[in-house]
Amino acid sequence: MWFLECADQAFDSGNFTDALGEFECALKISPDDIQAKTGVALCLIHLRRYAEAIPLLVQLEALMPTSLQLQFLLGESLYCTGRLDEAEVCLSRLVTQAPDHFDAQNRLGRVYMDLHRHPEANQCFSTALVLNPRHVESLTYMGIMMIQFCQFDNALIALGNALAIEPKNVLALNNLGRAFKMMGRPEEATLWYLRALEIAPRDVGIIGNYLFALNYCADLSPEFVAQEHFRLAPSAHRIDFDATPVPLQRKESGKLRIGYVSGDFYTHSVAYFVEPILIHHDYDTFSVVCYSLGTTSDATTDRIKDLPCLWRDMVGAAPDALAYQIREDRIDILVDLAGYTADNRIGAFASCPAPLQVSWIGYPNTSGLPQIDYFLTDSVCAPPGMTDHLFSERLWRLPRIFCCYLPPMEFPTVVPSPYLVNNFVTFGSFNNFGKVTPQQIILWARILRAVPGSRLYLKSMSLGDRSVKESVLAQFDAEGVDGDRIDMRTVTTTPLEHLHEYSRVDIALDTYPYHGTTTTCEALWMGIPVISRAGVTHASRVGVSLLQHVGCADCIAVNAEDYVVRAVALAQEPARLTALRTQLRGMMASSALMDVAGVTIEVEAAFVAMYELKCREGKGAP
């Protein structure tokens, strides 16, 4: 058939659009022609139109059930359209029939990774590497798997082997950055991200990872970090879809429509601060839409779904698709709760899908995007004139505190200070280990040396790795602190078990320059005072705001020397530790930090005032 000959020629030359047209013409003449159907399916796959290819592949597989290639292409297309459960069934069947099908093993590993079934993913990548030990993609994903397991030595080996074969492999470079950040070596992480950016200067994911890692680096000036955000964010999020600003206008019902964008609507640090706002919103005055981007779902997710807000499952949606949905929903105020953290779609904000856009809670720094109007904070995190120049957004300070905290649904009772039984003070930090810089360990060692017999209890997922543990002990040893005084624990199974671990700690030590937020709230809730060091950025003043509003201003240090002095002084006051153990939960419960109804009213008032101010500035009529 002439159409098939033309189609084959176009296909062989890589002109898949023309080839598709010719194959479709052939299929109109002969609807049952297998060659034409196969050609259409292959062209659609090459053009990444996987959803259109799937029905044809299903038909072809029924006609040729023994074709391993058809099964693989179907599994690949299902994966690329986010139909992970169906992809897993298809590819599992294929590797059962053909265990040595390298591509199927590799792709099935990716499916299991996305389904968070890490042991099965690890098995697939291991099998793939037995079949082809020098396959760069499999080596890279094996490295990513090892990072998931916090087996950093193995991750560095796998990723290093991938780079030895393909030195400009961006995925391997990016994940080396991720590994070093999780190991508490953020400066090295930024170097790997920069190497990746030399090759892929507009890669949105790498730019986001690099900007996020800058927040952990103790030796970088706030001005440099801000300038990097200003420099990279606009170039990363150039818009090639509809970016016509949405006009400001009231809805006929009079309700303002608020949209929250997050990948963390589950038992996650962000949810502890967002869920109470969603619970207490005035739904008679506001319509609320939650745009969920994360793949994790649990009891917290279910509670949020049960609230009188509209739930939009946008998992896997590209920024343009998310922006389109936001425009369709006619959102007035769009709130980003992710910044450059995992599962973000900050690129959607660059197209201005809502007339007013706000950054809040999920990221402790500027977005760098001029399209985002405001950053929601308070006057302690951002004293007027201190940090304004570090933001592309205008700072909007809530009247009391920038957030409110909702403890887990189940929590333990406060137990007496362990000092009473141990006769020594236990300091502790449960922060993300990326925040535990070498500079921080030097200060902790000074505290331990000044308090004879004291111990330090560290809890973090990254401490499951042997090399990280050895590095921590080596750093303390270099500072004259014996490793026997350092206790380390990895993750616990449930939030309740996690909170129980605080019963082993007398005094919590905050990190710098990236403070804890959830960990500080957890410690206070369990009756443990927290020593925090004030800086000049939002990330290094969150602890200041939390402690000041709870009534623990004397736990706030003004510099590194003061941090050591205050921690040592508190350790020498056992009576005060005992009193705080019984008082802190009540102090916290009666503070602005847990006045969830009041803070919600203040947040709503801020949104209304922002909206009306923007209207008055001539960008719309209220």
CATH class of the largest domain: Alpha Beta
Beta-strand portion reads: 5-15%
What is the average of the pLDDT values? 93
Could you say what the CATH architecture of the largest domain is? 3-Layer(aba) Sandwich
- CATH superfamily grouping of the largest domain: Glycogen Phosphorylase B
CATH domain topology of the largest domain: Rossmann fold
What brief labels describe this structure?
622 residues, alpha/beta, Serine Threonine Protein Phosphatase 5, Tetratricopeptide repeat, Rossmann fold, 3 domains, 6-stranded parallel beta sheet, 26 helices, 13 strands, 52% helix, globular
What is the strand and helix layout of this fold?
Layout (H helix, E strand, L loop, with lengths): L1 H11 L3 H14 L4 H13 L3 H14 L4 H13 L3 H14 L4 H13 L3 H14 L4 H13 L3 H14 L4 H13 L3 H14 L4 H11 L7 H15 L19 E7 L6 H12 L5 E7 L6 H7 L4 E4 L5 H10 L4 E4 L19 E4 L14 E5 L15 E5 L20 H4 L3 E4 L8 H13 L4 E5 L6 H13 L7 E4 L5 H7 L5 E3 L8 H8 L4 E4 L8 H9 L5 E2 L2 H12 L2 H16 L6 H24 L3
Parallel strand pairs: 1-2, 1-4, 2-3, 4-5, 5-6, 6-7, 8-9, 8-11, 9-10, 11-12, 12-13
Helix pairs in contact: 1-2, 1-3, 2-3, 3-4, 4-5, 5-6, 5-7, 6-7, 7-8, 7-9, 8-9, 9-10, 9-11, 10-11, 11-12, 11-13, 12-13, 13-14, 15-26, 19-24
